[in-house]
Amino acid sequence: MPVLAAPDGDSAAIARIIDEGMNRSEAMTTASALMDRIGPRLTNSENHRKAESWAMDLFRQRGLANVHVEPFDFGVGWNLDSYSVAMVTPRALPLTAIPVAWSPPTAGTVQAPVVIAPMSREEHFAEWKGKLAGKIVLVSLPGQTSESKGPVFQRYTDSDIAALDTYTKPDFDPDAPAIQVRNRRFQGKLAAFLKAEGAVAMVKISYRDGKLVHGEGYDFQPGQTLALPAIELAQEDYRKLVRLAKTGAAPEVAINVAARYDESNLKAENVVAEIPGSDPKAGYVMAGAHFDSWIAGDGANDNGAGSITVLEAARLIAKLGVKPKRTIRFVLWSGEEQGLLGSRAYIDQHYASRPVDPSLKGIDSYIAWRNAFPITPKPEYSQLKAYFNMDNGSGRFRGIYSEGNLGAEKLLKEWLSPFDMLGADKLVVSKTGGTDHVFLQAIGLPGYQFIQDPLDYESRVHHSNLDTVDHMRADDMRQASVIMAGMLWQAANSDKELPRAVLPTQPAPTDPFKVRDPSQ
Amino acid sequence: MPVLAAPDGDSAAIARIIDEGMNRSEAMTTASALMDRIGPRLTNSENHRKAESWAMDLFRQRGLANVHVEPFDFGVGWNLDSYSVAMVTPRALPLTAIPVAWSPPTAGTVQAPVVIAPMSREEHFAEWKGKLAGKIVLVSLPGQTSESKGPVFQRYTDSDIAALDTYTKPDFDPDAPAIQVRNRRFQGKLAAFLKAEGAVAMVKISYRDGKLVHGEGYDFQPGQTLALPAIELAQEDYRKLVRLAKTGAAPEVAINVAARYDESNLKAENVVAEIPGSDPKAGYVMAGAHFDSWIAGDGANDNGAGSITVLEAARLIAKLGVKPKRTIRFVLWSGEEQGLLGSRAYIDQHYASRPVDPSLKGIDSYIAWRNAFPITPKPEYSQLKAYFNMDNGSGRFRGIYSEGNLGAEKLLKEWLSPFDMLGADKLVVSKTGGTDHVFLQAIGLPGYQFIQDPLDYESRVHHSNLDTVDHMRADDMRQASVIMAGMLWQAANSDKELPRAVLPTQPAPTDPFKVRDPSQ
Question: ∠ at Cα A20 (A17, A21), nearest 5°?
Answer without folding.
Answer: 75
